[in-house]
Task: inverse folding
């Protein structure tokens, strides 16, 4: 048995080792070569995509001077911040209610909570568009809410699918949380709010921050749902870039895409770092 285990965990030898390395290189090239080409041609001097005439930063200059692009970025930032804050609060509360309490209809709520992760984006986009068209008059009764402008619809739509992802990350943290710490706080006469604020929240904070970064990334990258519910004057940058493609591929699109890609990669890397910190074993000083 020991020999079998050692043999299964041993490093591949000879030609199989190089075959696995070559296969891995081809997979990485297949996925990331288009990104490298996109980034390379964003510095192209020529207006013709795919024809290299020299290095230039002109398209990034046009990106900074384009008012429509700047406006769409500002819309994305506002929607991203608002939807992330709401999603983090609601997603964390949903995770706590499922993991820490037992109540009637909990299983049904748990199943519905994961629907945005399972169903296709187009299906959810159509449902949200129909929902807002049928209930616009109800929302307009609320002071300060005007769904005709589109910004509120974008925020609510992004909250609808971000809650699920935030809840998943926070629940993963709660599952590995030692419940005896909360019991000890109760033994020391702390009420539920004090226990949550001083014991539970600090321990799940890496998961909350990881869920928040994931929500930010999903909100910035979303195209399908945003294109169905956005309105004139409230177009996020992802939808604006998709609309630019209908007029033909321009080097300006390459520059805008690289900026969005860099922002998304930074958020994903930050989320992975937080996840690693969350799952890292405790050191002797923490024990």
Result:
């Amino acid at each position: 048995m020991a020999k079998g285990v050692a043999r299964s965990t041993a490093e591949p030898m000879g030609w199989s080792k190089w075959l696995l390395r070559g296969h891995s290189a081809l997979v990485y090239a297949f996925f990331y070569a288009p990104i490298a080409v996109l980034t390379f041609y964003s510095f192209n001097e020529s207006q013709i995509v795919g024809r290299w005439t020299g290095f230039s930063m002109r398209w990034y200059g046009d990106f900074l001077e384009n008012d429509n692009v700047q406006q769409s970025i500002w819309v994305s930032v506002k929607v991203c911040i608002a939807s992330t804050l709401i999603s983090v609060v609601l997603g964390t509360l949903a995770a706590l209610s499922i993991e820490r309490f037992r109540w009637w209809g909990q299983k049904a709520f748990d199943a519905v909570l994961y629907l945005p992760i399972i169903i296709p984006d187009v299906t959810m986009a159509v449902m949200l568009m129909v929902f807002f068209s049928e209930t616009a008059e109800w929302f307009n009764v609320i002071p300060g809410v005007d769904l005709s402008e589109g910004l509120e619809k974008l925020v609510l739509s992004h909250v609808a699918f971000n809650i699920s992802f935030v809840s998943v990350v926070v629940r993963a943290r709660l599952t590995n949380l030692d419940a005896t710490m909360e019991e000890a706080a109760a033994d020391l006469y702390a009420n539920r709010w004090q226990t949550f604020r001083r014991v539970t929240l600090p321990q799940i904070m890496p998961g909350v921050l990881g869920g928040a970064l994931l929500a930010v990334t999903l909100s910035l990258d979303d195209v399908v749902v945003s294109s169905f519910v956005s309105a004139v004057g409230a177009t996020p940058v992802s939808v604006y870039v998709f609309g630019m493609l209908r007029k033909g591929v321009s080097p300006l699109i390459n520059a805008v895409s690289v900026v969005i890609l860099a922002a998304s990669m930074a958020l994903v890397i930050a989320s992975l770092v937080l996840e690693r910190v969350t799952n890292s074993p405790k050191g002797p000083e923490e024990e």
Confidence is low (pLDDT under 50) at residues 1-7, 283-287. The chain has 13 helices and no strands.
